[in-house]
Structures are given as structure tokens and as C-alpha cells.
Amino acid sequence: MKYDILRKISLFKHMSDSEIDVLTNQLTEKNFEEGEVIVQEKNNGREMYIIVEGEVQVLLQREDTLLVLAKLSPGGFVGDMSLLTDLPRSATVKTLTKAKMLVFKKDTLDSIMIKFPATAAKFLKALSEELCERIQNANENVETLFLINKAIVDNEQFRRLYIGAHKQTPPVSPS
Hints:
Layout: H1 17-24, E1 28-32, E2 37-39, E3 47-53, E4 56-62, E5 65-72, E6 77-78, E7 92-95, E8 99-105, H2 106-115, H3 117-154, H4 156-166
Antiparallel strand pairs: 1-8, 2-7, 3-6, 3-8, 4-5, 4-7
Helix pairs in contact: 2-3
């Protein structure tokens, strides 16, 4: 098998080696330099990327704040939602090192669904499981943030500190 790493990726966990080989033959390889943007938030995309070599980070830019959602290494993948929807990208993905990726295009998945429906079903089942796990993790994070926020709001000392830190001072009038 050309890319043994695919056997270790959750998206291919329900497939036999021969089914993985069928998919591997449909994927293209692409190299990226360190610091290169692979996926840009809010742009449209029709492919996902499987990391063969290197590391990437998944980012959200909100005003002046850069949120690092994840760091991924070989075996990780990004852009998977674009295989299922035509929605814009939900985050930016940037390389931390030089990276080699396998590109899995939406057209490839569509073709596999016609030619190899059982293989496509196994892939889609694994992708659904992965997305459900991500939703569950996001729910847990939202719950944690809610409880932290509630604790701050319910605590008089924290409220005073917050109000004091965010109190606007009136502008000074010229004399």
C-alpha cells in the first residue's frame, strides 16, 4: 500500500486494505511550505486534506485574537465537511512545518459512491462518527464555558473586577 498511514486514520477504519487501495489511487498528493495557508475560513472548498507528513494548525481569527483550535500531525485531516456540503470553510488551516497532504476531492467521493457504493458507505459512516464526536466535544466545551461564565456572573467580587476593568473613563475636556 502506497500510504500505510491511511490504515490508521479513523475515516478508513471500516474499510479493507483493498478498499483503501481503491481510494488511495483516487487521491492526489500535494506539498506545502511552512507557514502556507491550506484552507481559508469563509472560502468555499471542494476537497479535504489528509496529512501524510508535517504539522498544521486549525485557526479562527476573531478581531485581534487568533484562536488555535487544534494542532494536527500525520494521520490528521481537515476540510472534511466540504465533501458533504457547499458551505464555506469554518476555519483556516495553516502549516507549521513543510507538509505533504493527500487531496480528497468531492468529485472523487461522488465517483466512488457510484462505482464502489459499499466503500463509500463505509467512508461516510466513519465520517459521520467523526463529526458526531466533534459535536460532542464542542458541546462539552460550550458547557464548560457556560459554567465558568455563570460562576463569574454569580460572584460579586468577579463582577466588580469585570466592571472596573471595562469601565470607560470619560474623555478629558481641553482647558
